[in-house]
Design brief:
This protein has 138 residues and is an alpha/beta fold. It has helices at residues 47-58, 75-83, 100-107, 117-131, and strands at residues 2-3, 16-17, 22-26, 32-36, 63-66, 87-91, 113-115.
């Protein structure tokens, strides 16, 4: 778990965060691209920016998760992921401190299911074991 660096490859078992005041994106070869803030950006870093790049690079091979938080950042990018065939999940209301971001993702159809973080972890472990992200997640 660490701050992402320009050009590094995304690898299984790691968690990367965007540097302060920068966007984290992925490019076609699976490398990290750090992008500066644009004058029109509302949120930096933005989950929408990250998820939009994930949709383009990984499509149906991705899982997108929106956790507890205020506002709607992430909904547009998560919807792009869903449209490309990714599994998209929102944290459920019962386990959320602030249900804003997950609620918007569910209302807009960006997330296909709501669940607690423990259930998300179980699901990710099933995918990792070879079940694949296209299987029924019920």
């Amino acid at each position: 778990v660490r701050i992402a660096e320009q050009g590094e490859r995304v690898e299984p078992g790691q968690v990367l965060f965007a540097p302060d005041d920068r966007h984290l994106t992925l490019v076609q070869d699976g490398a990290v691209k750090i992008r500066r803030r644009a004058a029109s950006d509302l949120h930096v870093p933005s989950v929408d920016v990250l998820f939009s790049s994930v949709a383009e690079v990984y499509g149906s091979r991705a899982v997108g998760i929106i956790l507890s938080g205020m506002g709607s950042d992430g909904c547009t990018g998560l919807l792009k992921m869903r449209e490309k065939g990714a599994v998209t999940i929102a944290q459920n209301e019962e386990s959320s401190i602030v249900f804003g971001m997950p609620m918007v993702a569910l209302q807009e159809g960006a997330a296909i299911r709501a669940m607690a973080p423990t259930a998300m972890a179980d699901l990710l472990l099933r995918f990792r074991s070879g079940a694949g992200v296209t299987e029924n997640i019920d």
